[in-house]
Amino acid sequence: LSxxxxxxxxxxxxxxxxQQLEDAVALYDAGILFLDSVLREWVGEWRAKGxxxxxxxxxxxxxxxxxxxxxxxxxxxxGVFQEGLRVPLVMRFPDGWRxxxxxxxxxxxxxxVPTILDFVGLPHDPRMPGYSLRRGRPEDSVxxxxxxxxxxxxxxxxxxxxxxxxxENTS
Length: 171
Known about the structure:
alpha+beta, 4 helices, 5 strands
């Protein structure tokens, strides 16, 4: 990457010249493209073997990515900002439920297990957080995320379009 020294990059917390930042973003995008190609291959194999019709497929990520979208934020994954909280979630149900639809409603990873349990007809333990997306997340529900930054814990409560951040010193 244009003479990029990763140790120096980390030391300087990602203060990159424009060309190196462009190269780093391109490398990140190439990783996503590679993952897309692997998923395409797997799904193609499942389809060819007749397994896809009976497969519930969920593809998501554990974080977003800022890549120096904000000052001093090259490292990490976007944190409590939108670029860190908005992550991909693609679900394909064997029965074609909501096929091809883009859902705008806010959901969270906590909704995955209740959704899958609901789909296969198993009961959801009410002590578990989250809602089945097949039944719908209540409009007034709140999603919680936590992020630790050094000696501080930041809790984020989202009830779209509102977002509340509470920062607590943990030292």
